Amino acid sequence: MSLLKTEENNQIEKYINLENNIKTIDRLSSDGQVALHVASFRGHSEIVQFFLTDSAFTSLATISSQLTLFDISKWAEIQRLVITASNLHDFREEIPDNNYIVWSIDGESLIRKGREFREQIDLYKTYDNQHHSITKLLIEIVEYYLNEYLTEQERFSSTKIDEVKRCFRDAIDEQNYLKYFIKAYTLTNSFHRVLNKHLALYILHYFDARPYSSTPAEYRLINCLAHIVTLLINHPDVRQHKYIGLTYRGMLMSPNDLKPYRIGHYILNKSFISTSKNREVAQMYAGSGQESVLGVISTQHDPLEVPVIFKFIIKHDDTGIDIEYMSMVEDEEEVLILPFSVFQVKDRIENGSNTGSPGLIEIELEQCEDNEQINNEKSQKTYNLHNFQEEIPDNNYIIWSICDDNLIKKGEEFREQIDLYKAYDNQHHLITKLLIEIVEYYLNEYLIQQERFPRDQIEKIRDCFTKAIEEQNYLKYFIQAYTFTDSFHRVLNKHLALYILHYFDAQSYSSTPAEYRLINCLVHIVTLLTNHPDIHKYKYKGITYRGLLMKKSDLKPYHIGNYILNKSFISTSKDPAVARMYAGSGQENVLGGLSNHHDPSEVPVILKFTIKQDDTGVDIEHMSMVEDEEEVLILPFSVFQVKDRIEYGSDTDWPGLIEIDLEQCEDNEQVNNKKSKSK
User: Fold this and answer.
1) What are the ANK repeat spans here (predicted)?
2) Is the pTM of the predicted complex or chain greater than 0.70?
3) C-alpha span between 235 and 230 (Å, rounded)
């Protein structure tokens, strides 16, 4: 009996021969119609539902004959069934085409991650196709990743699973993993998309002992992913197919996804990247070629997305594999870039309307020669990994604000959508559950894995949230956590600024389980504070100040009359002298110790906030871990209007200082009335 004997087939296959049934479905009748077409045309939605139990659906021609109202309703139902089944098996909607490259990292740890990955897979370097351990690893991939995980978690059809599984079986039988993995990878759209999604989401967990061993299922998944990658990287024949030179990749990307691709930035890919030696192929995938392959799925793409061509310069033997003659799609001249390759952005060109490719963005990525070169270049920067001063500039919490016409609607939506917290009870079990989720996911997983927080800081912050649960006092202990270290409040505000608006976008909010959990945690953190029953005891009305250094370009939204809505917390002080010190214009400049982190073009700024409403400012002076700053915390989604702006000259006590007066809007109606008059 084969070691790879599968489970019993599904219930339908017990009663009929599905393979023959598929042939029946696709068989042409005398008038040239296929069975599925006939069933749909006649309005037999029950039969269509049966036909779509597997991948045996055929494209439906447009029906031009006259339809009754009843026919139209049946036809709409059939269209819905076809679209649902197509999405289920195709995964285009679920896994956007550009995510494998969006899911890369450009932080300081990318070199270390790549080195760790190579070091931790040394056991594969004595690779022998005939060794029984290779067979065992492949059997585990088949039994768990294909038979269980893809079937149960990703809803892969039995037909597609069988196609992929056949490749891995052949790899065992013929002792040639390289050949048959490439065949599986290029066999269907679904497998390579889902594999890359899983690599992007989970492969970094391989380096973190806690989540790696958190559950047997996650442990097996991460192991399977590591096997898939490392069996290919260390295959004895992989160097026969090495590729050094130029390759291209085309796709559609949103402006937000393009942000990391700035000249000088380093990129490490966590998943496989399919590229082509032929630039024209890449242009078609970017939607800018003569025969755009994206034309048939254009409805899947956001109109804000722009065509992008990535030009990869591959320099190392162990990075690119020329799979043109192994691929199931030979005409794409494909080169596969392996995970954990490091590239630097060398150039970025945006083609104008007067060019041959209007709107196209070209990004040149050159592979790094060696880790030492990168580390030498980066070591020249005065960067503090745990302080995040370079990564998260001090003024970003206010730069990440919005001042367009939507800000009132956003504020209203946020308040309306968190009504469930208004019946807040510290002792309610729901509050405890939300706090546990913040600890388990946001602190224990996200901050450690994505932000590289040191464990000693995580433990201190976690202690605060644990005490909040035990003593049923979130207000007190959140403020302690927020003011305990410099890093936590900076990173929390960065995440609020980047992701909190996704809460109002159903597609972003539910795009991946990881992003869904992150956004939920951020919402819990804010709303548990906003609706805390004791918060009114600490309400603050009056004038507060915030000092910071800002670039002139960041000051542009602060015109007199403009409205500002903050997406994150704002730390202010009742004492203007404290604000002046943070702006670098006080007698005791607290920024003096880290002046190397600031651009010489930055100017000192004092923001003067006039708070008028009860639910905006929280006086945390006696709860804060830094009492002498007389701190008032302004809550997210507060709306202010710029009332005045003063620039001090060289003949004043504060030469070069800019003071901006921000007054809170009394109500949304006032803001809307003023906006309507200005139009």
Assistant:
1) 31-56
2) no
3) 8
